[in-house]
Amino acid sequence: MNETYEEKVAVYIDSVLPKQFSYERKKVSEDWLKKSRMAEGIVSDFVRRVEAVEGKRILDIGFGNGLTLKAFADQGGVMSGLEVSKSLFSIATDVLSNYGVSADLKTYDGFTFPFANESFDFIYSVSVLEHVDDPVAVLKEASRVLRYGGSFYLAFPNRFNPKETHTGIWFASYLPRKVADLYLKMCGRSGVDMYWNVHFLSFFKLKRFLKEGAIPMTIRFETESLHPIKRFIKKTLALLGLHHSIFLPHIMVILDKKK
Fold first, then answer.
1. Number of structural domains, the chain?
2. pTM, 2 dp
3. Residue range of the domain that includes 92
């Protein structure tokens, strides 16, 4: 990337993370360096689990620096994106311009999507839902703008993963949020609000969000595997209404909007 991009990234990190929080600054910087490779992995997983994206209208909820959106566009997706941060909007605009990628990027209030009903064939959101204040509202809006028969690829850190993703502190996400805030500070980390207002989510909370909001999307239980033991485990979990990603560091589900 050019110097302007790097300068904007540095300004963004300075704006969201005070300089005394060395762990957080280092982690954010390292994560951004991995974004391109991670983006390619997300697209590959999407195509494998959903379908090819060429010619499909796709919405990225929380596009960040724009690299995941670019990876989808490289595969032929017709891209739109939402972001609450004007700084990230500026960074992503530069990234996409540098790569010659066209996309409809918008900033929004974190609640209401500025798109008409059934605007998109697919939606994806990776490591965003845990940072929003009203996940039910976001899921409702995602369902509204998704066409019937469309799919929503949703991923967020699993609170039951022993090592909390954002802070690197063991078992922090097992605790109530206020207790976790105190625990993090005792461990020399900043409080939970410093991590972009992070909330600890689980598969069970996702199910509750969908039910509470009467959201017309259903969780797809993926039971296929080349390995017979894994296939048996997936099918057994599905019978219990559980997705296999409950055992993974991240919950990664496909939500289908049935016709």
1. 1
2. 0.92
3. 3-256
